[in-house]
Amino acid sequence: MAKMHIALRVNNRQVETLAEPRMLLIHLLREELRITGPHIGCDTSHCGACTVDMNGKSVKSCTVFAVQAHGAEIITIEGLAGADGSLHALQEAFREHHGLQCGFCTPGMITRAYRLLQENPNPSETEIRHGIAGNLCRCTGYQTIVRAIRAAAERLNSAKEAAE
Amino acid sequence: MIPAPFEYHRPRSLDEAIGLLAQHGEDARVVAGGHSLIPMMKLRLAKPEHLVDLRDLDELRGIRSEPDAVVIGALATQHELIGSELLAAKCPIIRETSLQIADPQVRYCGTLGGNVANGDPGNDMPAVMVALGATYLVKGAHGERDVAARDFYEGAYSTALREGEILVAVRIHMPADRHGYAYEKQKRKVGDYATAAAAVVLTMSAGACTSAAIALTNVADTPLFAKDAGEALVGTAADEAAISEAARRAQSITSPSADGRGPADFRTHIAGVMVRRALARAKEHAG
Q1: A38 to chain B: which residues are within 8 Å by CB?
Q2: How far is it, in rounded angstroms, from Cα B70 to Cα B60?
Q3: Which of A59, A89, A99, B234 is the Cys-Cys partner for A148 at CB 3.0 to 4.6 Å?
Q4: Within 10 A of B1 (CB to CB), how many other CB atoms are there?
């Protein structure tokens, strides 16, 4: 099949490329754009390791075609740290609270948590657990992940208050 | 997993989408949220040569109220159904069910239209629509028609949708203001299809049940409308004896397959448990 021209923004950078219609977004990101933060875990839309933010929604990029992202705004884990390399509050909190062990699920987990906190800046523990229900972690038992997200929410909220 | 090659179309209007289906016939499939079809394509269980993506069709979006009905566009996502104040007020079983479908990422993409039109017996919304007595609005090259949800499901992945037709909206006759409702779903884990699930919509007046609609998910090739089970409740106080009889009648029409969710008789057993729980909870809301 003929390749199609697609244009999208990835981590605030305009990207134009040619893609076969059957190419999945995760493959465009990893293999064409060399953005390898989003991982391929299950490849069946269960595990959430490939989660990216697309037009303000968390999506599993193994279940979206690259051509469907034409015109979209994508944020991956690479887009969360500051331009100077300073970590996002979620990244800091995952480090501080041991929100990871092997780290394979972490990019998807943090990218999902980023959108969760955009929608609900002060989630309860239950809301966090429901909010990350589409991301599997086989190491931590989730306790430290939930704690890290809660801590990041508090840090972001107090930074916001301080700014006001 | 890489799907078989296909040509991708992104029409700007419903008429254009219908034209593409007419042109490519059975080689074409429509895709909305994609979370049923794309996994099937990756497994090569589906190999459409033309994929018609409905995502730009704003005419298929939105949730609106009519004097005696709620009309939900086919492209309304589960995330949007969960957030809809109109549905929370008028037809809360839809929010309750949406929250039990898959996980947050999938709910941002998955649509009501896809969930009901795909014909997968594991999908949750078909039974809810059957219980609510909803109507599906479908459109093809030969015009528009309405199909009752109760007449729509013919077999696994087989529905009354004809080649070239697109499901454009779902119309739900407004349930009574003080109706009771529940969707009870047994599943092994987040994101799983039901071992068995039951949707219930009922009304009570002066302590007596005046109407009851019960439908079941994933215990047959299609969602099941348990008509006799509902009738077992009408005129009773929906007490323990009536609920037991309704559950027994509901179980008697199931024909689940044995799979990783359990042997067939276990799934029939769970269907009975789900009916009991759904009725008990629905009764509490009603009156």
Answers
A1: none
A2: 14
A3: A99
A4: 12
Whether B189 maps to a domain, the answer reads no
Contact A21 B191 (CB under 8 A): no
Asked if residue B187 is part of any domain, the answer here is no
Domain that holds residue B21: 7-49
Secondary structure of residue B208 in the 3-state scheme? strand
Cα–Cα dist A106/B94, whole Å: 32
Sign of CA dihedral B98, B102, B105, B106: negative
Are residues B85 and B153 part of one domain? Answer: yes
Q: Model confidence over B146-158: pLDDT tens digits?
A: 999 999 999 999 9
Give pTM, 2 decimals.
Answer: 0.96
Interface test with B, best of A58, A75, A112, A138 (most B CBs within 10 A): A58
Nearest to B33 by CA among B87, B84, B107, B97: B107
Please tell me the distance in Å from B105's CA to the nearest CA on chain A: 5
B260 touches chain A (CB under 8 A): no
The answer to whether the beta carbons of residues A114 and A128 sit under 8 Å apart is: no
Task: Identify the pLDDT of residue B287.
Answer: 73
Domains of chain A (ranges; CATH) run 4-79 (3.10.20.30), 89-163 (1.10.150.120)
What Rg, from alpha-carbon coordinates, does chain A have?
16
B229-243 confidence digits (pLDDT tens): 999 999 999 999 999
We report the CATH number of the domain holding residue B256 as 3.30.390.50
Q: Give residue-wise pLDDT tens across range B159-184.
A: 999 999 999 999 999 999 899 999 99
Which residues of chain A lie closer than 8 angstroms to B96, CB-CB?
none
Query: How far away is chain A from the Cα of B82, in angstroms, using its nearest Cα?
Result: 13
The verdict on residue B280 lying in a domain is yes
